[in-house]
Design a protein that fits this description.
Elements: H1 2-34, H2 42-49, H3 51-63, H4 70-78, H5 82-96
Helix pairs in contact: 1-5, 2-3
Transmembrane segments: 77-97
Keywords: Membrane, Transmembrane, Transmembrane helix
């Protein structure tokens, strides 16, 4: 069970790092084309994909009795560029899904 979960986390982490690379290249090409630094924030990316789900998450967090999770916490994270968020999540998934190294120096009798 845990072997499959670790494998899926490694696959997800690899896809997230690939998405981070694509987002970084996209931001870089837009920056070069317009001769100024242009970074797509995670908020803008999420809003362009599904503005309704973004509004539902915001309303859900504010109605849950923990509005501080939206304003300082999630709002700050969503202000980061897409490639930063994907990189952090990808590295975290790869780290959690890593295979444990066994101690081969111990001699069993």
């Amino acid at each position: 069970m845990f072997i499959v979960l670790r494998f899926l986390l490694r696959v997800l982490g690899s896809f997230l790092l690939a998405a981070a690379l694509v987002a970084m290249i996209s931001d870089g090409s837009r920056t070069i084309a317009q001769s100024e630094v242009i970074l797509l924030s995670s908020f803008d990316f999420w809003a362009s994909l599904s503005a309704d789900s973004l509004a539902e998450v915001r309303a859900g967090l504010e109605a849950s009795g923990a509005p501080f999770l939206w304003d300082p916490v999630l709002k700050t994270i969503l202000s980061w560029p897409v490639w930063v968020g994907c990189s952090i999540l990808g590295i975290l998934c790869l780290w959690i899904g890593r295979t444990r190294s066994r101690d081969t120096t111990a001699i069993a009798f």
